[in-house]
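#dry-run=false #mode=assembly
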Amino acid sequence: MNTLERHKYDVVVIGAGGAGLRAAVEAREAGLKVAIICKSLFGKAHTVMAEGGAAASMGNVNDNDNWMVHFRDTMRGGKFLNHYRMAELHAKEAPDRIWELEMWGALFDRTKEGKISQRNFGGHEYPRLAHVGDRTGLELIRTMQQRIVALQQKDAKDHGDAESYIKVFAELTVTEILKENGKVAGVYGYWRETGADVLFEAPAAVIATGGVGKTFKITSNSWEGTGDGHALALKAGANLVDMEFLQFHPTGMVWPLSVKGILVTESVRGEGGILTNSLGERFMFKYIPDVFKDKYADNEAEADRWYVDQDNNRRPPELLPRDEVARAINTEVKAGRGTEHGGVFLDVSKRLSAEVIKKRLPSMWHQFYELAGVDITKEAMEVGPTCHYVMGGVEVDPDSAAAIGVPGLFAAGEVAGGMHGSNRLGGNSLTDLLVFGRRAGQGAVQYVKSSGTHAVSDPAIQKAGARIAAPFTRTGGENAYSLHQELQEITQNLVGIIRTGVELKEAIEKIADIRKRSASISVTGDRKFNPGFHLAFDLDNMLLVAESTAKSALLREESRGGHTRDDFPGMNATWRQVNHISSFDGEKVNTKAQPLPIMPKELFDLFDVHELEKYMTPQEIAKGGSN
Amino acid sequence: MARKLKLRIWRGDNKTGALQDVSVDANPGEVVLDIIHRVQATQMGDLAVRWNCKAGKCGSCSMEINGKPRLACMTQVASFPEDETITITPLRAFPVIKDLVTDVSFNYKKAMEIPAIQMPQGMKPGEPRMQQVDVERSQEFRKCIECFLCQDVCHVIRDHEENKKSFAGPRFFIRIAELDMHPLDTLRNRKKTAQEDHGLGMCNITKCCTEVCPEHIRITDNAIIPMKERVVDVKYDPIRWLGSKIGKREGIV
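#status=ok
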């Protein structure tokens, strides 16, 4: 047995997307020693896939915008299931986080006055998304990556070693959060390249591992979206909140099969793209829900006028929140009005010139031209819903991003729950990463100051090591690839965009069965860069996530945001008063209801009471907030 | 209609390895990465390959397909003749770790050698005002997805390991150009250091990097040549040379 590779840090950040890198910058700037761990190469995290922009009420394009309007839009988008405090912090701090990126070298598109330009997006009342064409996520990740390099260059000058205070451990999988006396003591994992084990001893860990899309068959997520952080947190004793809420992005590519699920940015609709069915009908006018009737145009003429005069016209219904648009497309296709390949048409070619399309939507043009042979400046795209984002996640304290129940554990970004309620607005995730990434960094700094360190015990190390070695000691078991495919079929068909109680029960049984069989997975080859071996661990995480989602979905007997029950259509104000909390007892996931935190009066009063009446019970309205 | 596809995939590590013949189904519309995944799931469970987004946005699945550096996720199977055997090998300019995965740490070391942006003193967040035309030049270079195909194809290092020490490569020439043209960067002498510290002079403008760039960044025309021209201007124009000595300035604004 080789000697175990050991490292000591103040904070270990798991995940190098926007949230993880922002947390790392914060902790380093406060003087701590930080390790950043990522499953891929540095700079490849799923954040690069974000296209449309980052929502922040800077008011550069319409100066009526401010944090209160953004807060209201976020709560509306989430159907008031959001943790009010997270939505409040996010709306207040987002502009500063964007301006800060500019100081680190980011180059956003500009307004005529030379300020950061902002574009329209679904559910946002004013043009609010800072953007760089349709590659905003890349700009964000590259800026953060270069900020980390800048800090390392400074450390090289000041301390003689670029990696003395902040080091990136790329292509390393974390398999366990280690605790001693109930507190975080370190993390354990293995190098993907060599398969060798690594121990990080640290009093604080920030989970920033992103989403769970790979649990589903049709998804916009990369291979990394396997719910690692969700599962690590569950196993460490933290809770997941509202795992039934998954966002099916309305517009993923549907053809060719090979690219099914790849994202088509909402900016296409923000820039004027319209949705039509196979009969040529602009169908979204039929799907404006009552709660949004005063804000969305019910006729084409008004919808078209909005692009030139936003003050005197209501918005086109293509820009409804994502859950509404995804359900509408699903309904059209099921009713037989879909395209040849099971989608609907999205067309921007009639609104904008070829030149403008190529300038504002360059990667969309490129993506359709190269992968589908479609020229979007001349013809319509075929699109349909794709699993895009999980609103549910680790239950955290909003201000510090500390995971409830596990001292020393923090979570930020997509892996954290609460911020987006039952449905996330486009553009809110990039600023979520920055706002709560920074707060998680700060939270970890505060915690480490007083926590002291806790040595990891030998039995804990041995146990973690044995788990990694196990798949190689077994022979004749099933292969991880086929079990993964089986899981994806189950989630896609039984826990997907439209759900029923009967199907969810069936899913829970089937997931449990796969989990049982996965215990005997065996892998071929050795530990060196072996994808079959890697998938065995990813699969274990996806199974826990799928179980949490199915169980939470079965409990919630209503339809809201990213959770639609065919057997319980419609929203129910009583259900708005509860979150679903999932925990893990070592054998199975247990899910229970928990009262939703009540909005304080000053936030309650930001809304027109008639709007709140659509979501809340008369008793809640009478109470008027918690104070 | 599925078709049978013949592949030759390089398998091995930094010591030994060989091309292995594989026959696998291919469906219409599929890209080379789909085929590699099918081989992985059905025939070679431990075949090593890097990939992430499968949409041409992250630059992870760089490899050589019939000898040409390409992203596997953006290479259509249909672009090859029906009966052609497709040969898939790892990037040649970097050491192999296993199968199609190479050690690209060279690039991260070079990134560390390029001084970060230096903002104007006293500038506060929210203050910058820039015109779209002024940010566009740098934005072109910031489209880079760091697939390192330009580094792989560049003959200065592709067949000359000894040049790696003194040559940053096209990816980092566009990084320097991006900072040099960044409206807010105040660090001087970026072009001069590109020439003296990062090996700009070793590039002889064969444009191979531009040809393989999946983002269609005009690496040679818009970054390398303009920097070379200005470096030459200063070096050989006696008045500018004198100016640069007296004023302690780079000579070109």
